[in-house]
Amino acid sequence: MSSAQGSSARGSSAHPAAPGPYRVVDPHPDIAEALGSLWVAVTEAGGAVDFVPGDPEDDIRALADSTIAEVRAGRAVMLALGDGADLAGTVFLVLGSGIAAHRADVGRLMVRPDLQGRGWGTVLLDAAVAQGTALGLEQLTLGCRGGTPLPAFYAARGWEQYGVLSQGVRLSADDARDVHLLRRRLT
Ligand SMILES: CC(C)(COP(=O)(O)OP(=O)(O)OC[C@H]1O[C@@H](n2cnc3c(N)ncnc32)[C@H](O)[C@@H]1OP(=O)(O)O)[C@@H](O)C(=O)NCCC(=O)NCCS
After folding, report:
1. Mean pLDDT across 85-114
2. Is the pLDDT reported for residue 155 higher than 70?
3. 99 C-alpha to ligand 1 centroid (Å)
4. Which of 15, 111, 123, 140 to mutate to test the pocket of ligand 1 (most atoms within 8 A of CB)?
5. Helix, strand or coil for residue 2?
6. Which CATH superfamily is domain 22-138 in?
7. What percent of the chain has pLDDT over 90?
8. H-helix or E-strand containing 125?
9. Where does ligand 1 bind, in terms of residues with CB under 6 Å?
10. What was the pLDDT predicted at 160?
């Protein structure tokens, strides 16, 4: 694994077999494929990360490629769980710039379906907060899909809702969902 290991933010005994979370400083060429595989599995299991079940795998893998390109370009920070070639979970911080350089948007929080519900999502989210603090950021934001357990998941972990984008995502012709906008102050 070529990914640099940052400080472990693991705070629970969720799953002893998955190393991390660690910051992926220098993404290995294979990590985009690993991210794509994780993202496809999470999507097919009903996860709420940019896609819906049945979306073309190529579309998901293309977004995984461009997500890793953002990490390489220094515009995003990737935190990972598991082996770099076989990711168990991820979360990203998309860094603001200019007058928004004091904040980042957290996204693509994903845990492999067979590992969900064991505390790893909480560990990854805590690691994102710790990373934001370490980077000197003042606040983090995120958006999550309504009609899912996600708004309550984040609220229970200290995130405050500052708005709702009504019908912000359309999952199908007759299923538009609100996007819940949340933030976490770091200072
Ligand atoms: C959301 C997610 C990252 C949480 O990770 P996790 O490891 O399952 O979560 P934890 O075990 O730390 O915590 C369980 C909590 O997650 C909530 N949860 C949300 N979606 C869940 C899911 N698909 N499976 C299990 N728990 C889920 C549970 O309600 C529970 O909440 P509570 O503890 O406040 O009662 C994970 O379920 C996942 O990858 N989901 C699919 C991708 C997704 O939708 N990501 C959100 C992007 S905004």
Report:
1. 97
2. yes
3. 32
4. 111
5. coil
6. Gcn5-related N-acetyltransferase (GNAT) (3.40.630.30)
7. 86
8. helix 120-134
9. 42, 47-49, 109-111, 116-122, 144, 149-150, 153, 156
10. 98
Q: Given pLDDT bands bounded at 50, 70 and 90, which one contains residue 1?
A: very low
**DSSP letters spanning 31-53:** HHHHHHHHHHHHHHTT--SS--T
Q: State the chain's maximal CA–CA distance in angstroms.
A: 45
Where along the chain do its domains lie?
Answer: 22-138
Ligand 1 centre and the CA of 138: distance in Å?
A: 25
pLDDT of res. 29: 87
* Whether the Cβ atoms of residue 142 and residue 154 lie closer than 8 Å to each other: yes
Q: What is the pLDDT of residue 20?
A: 86
User: How remote is the CA of residue 106 from the centroid of ligand 1, in Å?
Assistant: 15
CB-based contact 113:32 (threshold 8 Å): no
Kindly write down the DSSP assignment for every residue of 11-28, as one continuous string.
Answer: -S-S-TTS---EE-SS--
